[in-house]
Amino acid sequence: MARAIASSTSDERELSLRWSGRVSLTPRILFVNIFALALLAGGFFYLDTYRARIIDSRVARATLEARLIAAAMAAAPRPERRALFLSLAESTGSRLRLYDTDGRLELDTRALGLRNFRLRDPDRDPWQQDAARFLDAVIDTVVRTARAPLYREPADDRGDVWPDVQAARTTGSAAASVWRAPDRTTVITAASPLPSGEVAMSVVNALDITQTVRLERYRLSVVMGIVTLVSVLLSLFLARTIVRPLRRLARAAVRVRLGRAREVVVPRLPSRRDEIGMLARALSDMSQALTARIDATEAFAADVTHELKNPLASLRSAVESLGNVRDPELQARLLAIVRDDVLRLDRLITDISDASRLDAQLSRAQFEPVSLTAMLDALVRARIDRGISRDITLAFDARIDDPLIVMGEGSRLERVFANLLDNALSFSPDRGSIRVIATHVGDIAQVAVEDEGPGVPEDAREAVFHRFHSVRPQGEAFGQHSGLGLAIARTIVEGHQGMIAVESRADRTTGARFVVRLPLAARP
Predict the structure, then answer these.
(1) CATH for 212
(2) What is the pLDDT of residue 479?
(3) Are residues 351 and 385 in the same domain?
(4) pTM score
């Protein structure tokens, strides 16, 4: 039995969810997994960085090639320049131009018949290319990629219309630019000056950059699609294994709350060894305990009704007879019956009240260290000081240096041992002896109360702890006990995490032996 009640306020503050608490578990599991995939989708942003690095590398390469071409052209005799120009264009895959000192076009590999630089017309491409370009535009917009200027062939091809040629002529060093073709592919121009003041310029359509990026993007998209599908399926599986049993348990709990505890079978999920299985078995045990508590309450109410009817019937009969009896002696006897029935009712009502409130009171009790040795010693001495009838001897056997400290409520534990002493005194024969023995076995404190009475038969050793079960010694007047003493004692002991039982005496002599076992308090 729990000895403390946890604060619901602290539990709610610790387990509360703000906005997500209003959403079902299934979409929450899906959201968490898809959010992780969204982080993985950041690979598309990495591809933009990857493309920028490739472009930077190609720009550096184009700049170097422009320098080499300018150096080769400067070293070649003029009659051999045309052939060298074509050879360099074929080897680099570029369209080459040579502008004189006034910016006029001097040589052009296209005019010389080499058409290795062609821009595709987007209007003539199939729809797959349109879709790819649309995807490129969307991703570039998302990642906020700076758009390069559109590459167009000038109507009057002069050197001053190309920024690279102007920069090379002004600075005297190679310069390069990145352009965007109509089909969104990358065009790189580079120019380098010759010592004579001429400028060599190369133009290359870097189709391989776009193809490489699109290929990597396609591979990443395939991986993303597969991972997303697997993640969604796993999320649904996980939600199924978590949400479905929780819903079943919730429905069962609602039916129990509606008062159908006996009709509800809470699934125990024995095959599950996780927290859901633990919760299911805990709820099932709780439901069974609740059903047992309801049955016990109903049985207790029926027993109370039965026990109260007997003295009430006797009292009613005696009161009705008083009006018809004129003999003073008979009237005195009837009044004595009335007094006994009233006392019996008062005793029953008091014990019933104590028994009905005992569980709730123990659940709220603040347990403190209690010395069983000191308590029993004081209890036995008080009984001896008040005097014991029929020459019965009462002895306490314990080690004074062993206090037997337990955690509990002293008044409740004292009532347990007082009930056991009353029971032993009632059944002890004249000049009999009663021993109270206190010791410990391991970390368990053990208190035994032994008498020399008739004892308790083995088949009745459990029944004596039932409510209203009363077997009294011969010669005792009827109705002197309510039959709740041992039941109350068991409730108190079990509320202290202990146990009480009837055992055979170790010396094999006649008599009863009631044993109480309680856990010792942990030593500091």
Answers:
(1) 3.30.450
(2) 46
(3) no
(4) 0.46
